[in-house]
Amino acid sequence: MSAVSVISELKGGAPLLTLMKMIKGYFDSRSSADELYMDLIPVLQDLLREGRGYDDPSVQHIVHILGELQPYGHRRDNFRKKYLQDEYGLRSLPADPRDIMAGYWF
Q1: By C-alpha distance, which of 15, 92, 21 is closest to 100?
Q2: I need a surface site. Which of 3, 22, 100, 104 has the fewest CB within 10 A?
Q3: Could you tell me the sign of the dihedral formed by the alpha carbons of 95, 101, 105, 106, in that order?
């Protein structure tokens, strides 16, 4: 969401209601991202335990999905750099996204 669209929505009529909808959308996206993360990590860990490497298409598919879960920004970039660059980073992903440091997740 760009700054221009936010400003135009806030000028539109009920700025408080618009702001509350934006905040709700943020938390909805975070909770759905957390749920999907918690579904994907056990599958990823099983694939790595089976001996599939970082370059395996199944692993790369999960890496791509994990990389797209967050909104654009520094946290997304930090998460990708720390956890999604190699197999070591994948193996260090916690099972629960709440255990990821704040600068790397929502």
Answers
A1: 92
A2: 3
A3: positive
73: DSSP letter? S
Write the DSSP assignment of 40-60 as a string of letters: HHHHHHHHHHTT--TTSHHHH
Neighbours of 20 (CB within 10 A): 11
pTM exceeds 0.85 for this model: no
Q: Is residue 60 exposed (0-12), middle (13-18) or buried (19+ Cβ within 10 Å)?
A: middle
Closest CA to 62 of 79, 78, 39: 39
Q: Per-residue pLDDT tens for 36-94?
A: 899 899 999 999 999 999 999 889 999 999 998 888 889 999 999 999 999 999 999 99
Residue 39 tokens, joined:
């579904």
Backbone φ and ψ of 68, nearest 5°: -100, 0
